[in-house]
Amino acid sequence: MTHPLYGTTAVAGVGLRQFKRGASPLPERSLLVEAILDACLEAGLNPAEVDGFVSYGDDKNEPVRLMGDLGTRRLAWSASVFGGGGGGIAGAFGLAASAIISGQAKAVIVFRALAEGASGRMSAAVMAHHLNDHLLAAGLVSPAQMCAIRAQRLFKHYGVSQSIVEDLVRASYHHARNNPEAVGFGQDFDIAALHTSRWIAEPFRLFDCSRENDGAGALLLVSAEQAQDLAKPPVYLLGCAQGTEAGWGDLLENDADDLYATGGFRPVARDLYRQTGLSPADIDCVQLYENFDAQGVMSLIDHGFCTYENAAEVIRFDNLIAQGGKLPVNTAGGNLAQGFIHGIGLPIEAVRQLRGESANPVSGARTCLLAGGPGAPTVSSAIFANKVL
Amino acid sequence: MNHRLDGADAPYWQSLEAGQLQLPRCASCRRWLWPAGHRCSTCGSIGMVWEERPLRATVYSWTRTWHRFALTEALDLPYVSIVAEIEDCGIRLMGRMDDPSPDDPAIGEAVVGRIDRTRVGDDAIPTIIWSRAA
Ligand SMILES: [Zn+2]
To answer: Which residue, A72, A208, B77, B84, has fewest beta-carbon neighbours within 10 Å?
Structure first.
């Protein structure tokens, strides 16, 4: 019995606008409108026909306010995935697909927009979601610190070698080097810069952390049937899972002992693979939300690509790059080196990769896993493919 | 007094104000429950009792902060935050560690606490400050 989400909807267009933090030439909502127009233009769909919108991470752009600019005729459906971090990013696609499959909407934009002037620092907004006196008293006021304290346990209790995060960082910059849209375009990343960059919160130095950009991203999701008639080759959603399970959540650091040094994806990955009938071996590339590099490692472990024990064998530079690696990760540079608009660049790269449009094409790639923001109380993941397997 | 008395963990804050540590357990099955809530997920009972615990713990994890984040202005950089697993009850609490030595805290290391305050804006939040057990 095929799952209702399996191959029944597809991404038909993407749009991305990215600038240095604080340097957007346009207001946040205008950036978003531009990204949506780009996505519709790619697809060859009149933006006025978009009738659904979904976001995540407390995006402040309520879709009803976009109607004028887009010429929206009928706003039939709008929603947001709960949670302040990037945990909901993949879940937004599952939600959009549910609206399409159930006939509540026909053309749904999945979006995220962020400009410092309008929304302030994202890290502050994410924390505002969680901050309480327990955290304030401990001086733990940022996602970097909360992720650092988990990373310490990964390295010092589970003995995962800290050097493997370097391979993830190097692979990200390697990919960004070829990507004209990336922050790291054309730059040679010197790994010494990672070691000598200033401490933020141990074990994280500055270059272990993704740094925010201004920008907006939009992806147009329609039924698989309608996608056949649009301009771009469809990129199908094969499955999506979100949430958490007992023992993980907003628990004042009282998560179950065996889950503490994870990204929180175990139940999500389990459901995603069960739903799609796929396994890690079927995944040709990964777009991995790495707010912090150690959390990216946890996410790969959670999704079954490696274990605490063999992480160092799998998370190697040569294995993570598009040019010959078995597990190409963040082929546009990821949050670390492409740019960080709360992760929305990741599904856009998933789509481009599966269309053969990536700056770092993975030869023969059919499937791409999108892993949402690790460490959030609720997380999500999705699998995309360029044909329904 | 303040917003700390609005939540299910009000007795925790009150106990720190009074110079001791009290933590909640299910009134029926005696399971320790944290964060404080309303209903025990193990046995389904409503209601908790609060019991004093000694300020003794082990280091579950830690980080040393070097960057000046907003809301930490009253803390000298760098400072060490720890997740402390309280002795005999398994509840983990966030706190800070006295960091006079350059040695890193070690996971599993025994620590003892004292109650101090952390200034955040106009507020002074009761805080457990941990030190290496002698
Ligand atoms: Zn009980």
So the answer is: B77
